[in-house]
Amino acid sequence: MLTVLPLCLMGLLVGCLGALTGIGGGIILVPLLTLLWHVPLHAAMGVSLIAVVAQSTGAAATPGRDTLRNDRVAIFLETGAAVGAVIGAILTAHAPLPLLSILFGLLLLFASYSAFRKTGRPETDAATPDITNCDGWAGRLQLHGECLDRGERTRYRAQSVWSGWSTMTVAGFLSGLLGVGAGAVKVIAMDQIMKLPYKVSTATSNMIVGLTAAAGIGIYLKNGFINATLATPVVLGMVGGAMLGTRIITHAPVKPLRVLFNAVVLSFGLLMIARGVGL
């Protein structure tokens, strides 16, 4: 119990933070397991993939989240992310561990930099595009919707559809390669490139990260990277944390979420790079 309880509590915290920011939790879980628990990197990545699927399922099952999530956008973007995830998962067994650690850190720093750039922008910018002058593919694929946020309804339509899809494919590759949901890149693709409202981006990302992670689990299992004994308490905690975070986000302001996201990923990014170069 001295081992199981802390792992459950860690999963609870990571799942809640992942649901609040849409980053999937794995991008925080892997550094925690490797830096604090000294779990081998491949094993931590395997636990992360299973935990991300659980966290995504918990977030999707929470009542009220469907008022923000756009399922049509999620399915369209996942077609690219799943292909990237399979390719990344195949390559991860052959990549040197220091390189994976450095790449993981760089991914975190990129996510932190992007969040920092967004912190000062008004919350409504991405939520009020000119829906009469958007990407034609958004109309053909019906990538539009209406979200209810704190009693206010906002109409939106996706922009730069294929740029967002290409970025999502890269996110899928990083997911398979590094054992994460790559939600940080996915939120950026939807929020900054496709110009969806931030909360729609995080809610939709919470659905996509689980689908992408599931695409790589079979390959990780074949390579022996899945440790069920370690994963079980983490997964239990993450499901509860995801449901808690999902309930919170429908009433939470956007700017503090971005600041929280930025602080966490910046710290872990620097630590992972230091680990990779042997500091």
Structural notes for this entry:
The chain is mainly α. The chain has one domain (4-276). 71% of the residues lie in helices and 4% in strands. It contains 11 helices and 2 strands; from the N terminus they run H-H-H-H-H-H-E-E-H-H-H-H-H. It has helices spanning 4-21, 26-36, 41-60, 71-92, 97-119, 136-140, 161-178, 183-193, 198-222, 228-249, 254-276, and strands at 144-149, 152-157. The protein has a two-stranded antiparallel sheet. Strand 1 (144-149) and strand 2 (152-157) form a beta hairpin. Helix 3 packs parallel to helix 10. The longest helix is centred in the C-terminal third of the chain and has 25 residues, at 198-222. It is globular and about 45 Å long. The chain starts with a helix and ends with a helix. Residues 119-133 have low confidence and may be disordered.
Brief rundown of the structure:
Helix content is 71%, strand content 4%.
Question: What is the strand arrangement across the widest sheet?
Answer: 1-2
The shape, in one word, is globular
| Rg (C-alpha, Å) | 17 Å
Uncertain residue ranges: 119-133
